[in-house]
Each structure stands twice: as C-alpha cells, then as structure tokens.
Amino acid sequence: MMKRAECFQVLARHIKDEAVVATYSSAFEWDAIKPRALNYLSIGAMGLDSSHGLGLALGRPDKRVIVLQGDGSLLMNLGSLVTIAAVAPKNLVHLVAHNGTYEANGSHPLPDPKVDFAGMARAAGYAAVYDFADLEIFTQQIAYLLEQAGPVFATLRVEPSGPLTYDYRRIYDPAKRRAFKAAWQERG
Amino acid sequence: MLNGGKIIAAIKASGVEYVLSVPDIVTSSGLLAPIAQNKDLRLIRVCKEDECIGIASGLSYSDTRALILIQHTGFLDSINAIRGIAVEYRQPICMMIGLLQHDPELAPRASPSYGVRIVEPILDDMGIAHHLIGADMDVGKIGPEIDGAYRESRPVAFLIGRSPL
C-alpha cells in the first residue's frame, strides 16, 4: 500500500506542460506539492473530473492531460470509463487514488472498498491499464506510463490520508480558472 | 413545422465543433441521426447526461464550442452539474433539450407532462437563459444565443417542443 502524497511527489518530478485535473483531497495534496497555473481544480460536481479531463484532452490534442481522480468520485461516473475508451484520446492519462473511502466527506467507506477499478477500465477498453500498490514499482514505471498512447488508466492503491485542511474557497477561486485558461491556450 | 436541417445549419454556423449527446426520442431522427452523419460536427455519445457538462466545460478552456443534445429527463438528472459548472463557475454550457411527451401546441408550462412543466421554472430559478424552439421561425435564435453564451461565459438552453422533421 502506498501514500497518495508520495505518489504525487513522484508524479511531480515528471510534469512538464500537462494539464492536471485534481479534485477534492487530491486537489489539496497535489496543489501543495506542485502549485502551477496548469492545475485544473474546479469540477463543480463530484464525479465529473474524468469528463472534464476528456474535454480538455479533445480541445488540445497536442498536449497531455492527467486526471487525478478519487475512487468515490469515479464510482459516481463509471460511465465515463466507457465514454473515454470509446473516444480514445491518445493524450489522456487517468489515475485513480483508491483508498476505499469518501475521504473528503468524513472518510466513510465505499459501498465495496475492494472494487476493481483497473479491471473495469480494462473491460471498458482503455489502451493501457495499470494497478500499482508498491511505490518503488510506481516510481520505476511512471515515466513510461506517461509517454504511452492513451487513454491510459492506473489505480494507485493508497492508504487513507491523515486529516487535511479543505480550503475550498482557495482552490475554487475564479482567478485560478482564468489563470488555467490563459496557460492552457499558450502555444509553442 | 420544425426543420432539423435548419437547426443543424444554425449549429454549424455558430462554430460548434462537438455535439455531446444521450439519445432523446424527440430529437432522435430529426437531429441526432443526421448529426451522426455530418462530417462537420463531431458527435460524442456519452453514457449519462452530466458527463456532457464536464466535457463541454473542459472543451471551453481551449475555446472549442460544444452543444449538448439531451432529453429533459437528462437535464433534470444533471441539475447539480449544471448548478456547479454552468451557473456557479459561469461556464458556456449550451444545451438543446427535447421535451419528452410534450404537446407542441401548448406552452411548456402548460404541458400535460409534469416533468416538462417544471423545466422552465427550474431554468428561471437558476438564472439560465432559455428559448423555445417550436417552429422554423425560432431557429434564428440559436446562433446568436450560442455566440452570447461563449462571449459572456454563461449557460443557455434551447427547448425543443416538437420533433424536428
């Protein structure tokens, strides 16, 4: 079992000009580890992170999009696995932090914490699917994973985090959305 | 009379590149089927209507225009996504909503269908501009309203009151 923040620290070392869609607990940890204009933090409704990511990927096929979704969030939008696999954007990487809980809502368990997200992504038709529970293996493979033609999916099996401070006003600041748009539209 | 070809022409003329849809029986043969064959529009078939709201929002950050084509039941199912993304974040979310089981001779608020009757009051309460497209003479509203939604970064809804031919 890994820690989400450790996974994100590893991921951060490989980030260049990708958009990173991060929401709820993942958003607070990611934005603390790698603060940047190209962090897309406002999704407006739980579960839609993967759908925002698909829209971003279609709008800029020349850039990569990385979605950092929670397990409870994906459960609310499982159909997006089928939609994304059917559209098949080569520039989309979909990472799901699987800690078995609705962490941002009081750490209550998922209906079934053992749910197999990688299996569902594979069945939906993602181009490549991974399932990581070991930080050393994740560290070894992340660079290759990020370069593969997508859509790429990976489950990150992580422990529930300790208490986080959820300052939603800060991450949902309209200025952050404006800054993201300006950065996302840069060419060259 | 409502001509589907004229609606599609208006959608294309407004710069829409993507149509995001869950099938709706009101617009099935007159809009969705010809859109699926149209080489100038990219149709993305989604599993559930609220996906459309997220995808359209993501596309908007590259100024790529999208139209969401759904049934009013899917609109009702997507209210929280529309609340958060279209209204609170002021995103240009353009929706074309088929009114299932509506009598096209009546105003939507007088529809025999409860689900149809509540659509306009909900849009009003959410502050979302909406326009009934019930005849060919209404089609001219589509282009300027899509332009306005993207120019002002706000949502808009077009209500399809009868099956386009």
Can you give a write-up of this model?
The complex is a heterodimer of chains A (188) and B (165). Chain A is of the alpha/beta class. Chain A is built from nine helices and nine strands. In chain A, helix 1 packs across helix 2 and helix 1 crosses helix 7. Chain A starts with a strand and ends with a helix. Chain B has 165 residues and is of the alpha/beta class. Chain B has a single domain, classed as Thiamin diphosphate (ThDP)-binding fold, Pyr/PP domains (Rossmann fold), CATH 3.40.50.970. In chain B, helix 1 (4-13) crosses helix 2 and helix 3 runs parallel beside helix 5 (79-88). Chain B has eight helices and six strands. Chain B has helices at 4-13, 28-37, 49-60, 72-77, 79-88, 114-117, 119-126, 142-152; strands at residues 16-21, 42-45, 65-71, 94-98, 129-133, 156-160. The longest helix of chain B has 12 residues, at 49-60. Classes of the chains: A alpha/beta (188), B alpha/beta (165).
Blueprint of the fold:
The complex is a heterodimer of chains A (188) and B (165).
Chain A: E1 2-3, H1 4-12, E2 19-22, H2 24-33, E3 39-40, H3 49-59, E4 65-70, H4 71-75, H5 79-87, E5 92-98, E6 101-102, E7 108-109, H6 117-124, E8 128-132, H7 135-147, E9 152-159, H8 168-171, H9 174-184
Parallel strand pairs in A: 1-9, 2-3, 2-4, 4-5, 5-9, 8-9
Antiparallel strand pairs in A: 6-7
Chain B: H1 4-13, E1 16-21, H2 28-37, E2 42-45, H3 49-60, E3 65-71, H4 72-77, H5 79-88, E4 94-98, H6 114-117, H7 119-126, E5 129-133, H8 142-152, E6 156-160
Parallel strand pairs in B: 1-2, 1-3, 3-4, 4-6, 5-6
Helix pairs in contact in B: 1-2, 3-5
